[in-house]
Design brief:
The protein is built from four helices and eight strands, in the order H-E-H-E-E-E-E-H-E-E-E-H. The protein has a single domain, classed as 2-Layer Sandwich (Yope Regulator, Chain: A), CATH 3.30.1460.70. Strand 3 and strand 4 form a beta hairpin. Strands 2-3-4-5-7-6 form a six-stranded antiparallel β-sheet. It is of the alpha+beta class and about 160 residues long.
Length: about 160
């Protein structure tokens, strides 16, 4: 009887497999690359100018980055940030960015020193990370934010 129960639990993915192996964690950038590629997003892992991990990906032709924060010695990071910037011909009015921030709960926006719009969304992966399903849900939300933001700022590839 115990063997049948164990077999059923293993088949259901419960019990024997370590939960941490199934989690997406900032301390394991490869888990994020894997989750992106499983969701059919390109993913290139590199390091930024400070030596911390950085992932570059694309959605509908627009490049975005995943920046790693709260790292110890450029590894063992705790949080990530989805980030996309747009190099526009004309500076975007600050009131347009303020309107975005006022009406949107996710996807903080600002204007950089050149007047170009930036959109970011933070994700806390500390204390064990998050499940693959929840990461996929956040990724889906991020791409929705990107689409809406690009429409809001009048960005046309």
């Amino acid at each position: 009887m115990k063997t049948k129960l164990l077999t059923l639990l293993l088949a259901a993915g419960i019990g024997a497999s370590p939960a941490a192996a199934q989690m997406i964690q900032a301390r394991d950038p490869g888990s994020i690359v894997s989750a992106l590629t499983q969701a059919e997003f390109p993913a290139t892992l590199d390091t930024d100018g400070a030596g911390d991990p950085i992932i570059t990906s694309k959605h509908d032709g627009s490049t975005f980055k995943i920046l790693f924060y709260n790292c110890t010695d450029h590894k063992n990071c705790a949080t990530v940030q989805f980030h996309s910037g747009y190099d526009l011909d004309a500076a975007i009015p600050l009131d347009k960015i303020n309107a975005w921030n006022k009406s949107q709960r996710f996807g903080r926006a600002y204007v950089d020193e050149e007047g170009d719009p930036i959109i970011q969304m933070d994700l806390d992966l500390d204390d064990g990370g998050i499940s693959k399903a929840l990461f996929a849900d956040n990724l889906e939300y991020w791409t929705s934010v990107l689409d809406q933001f690009e429409e809001h700022i009048g960005y046309d590839e």
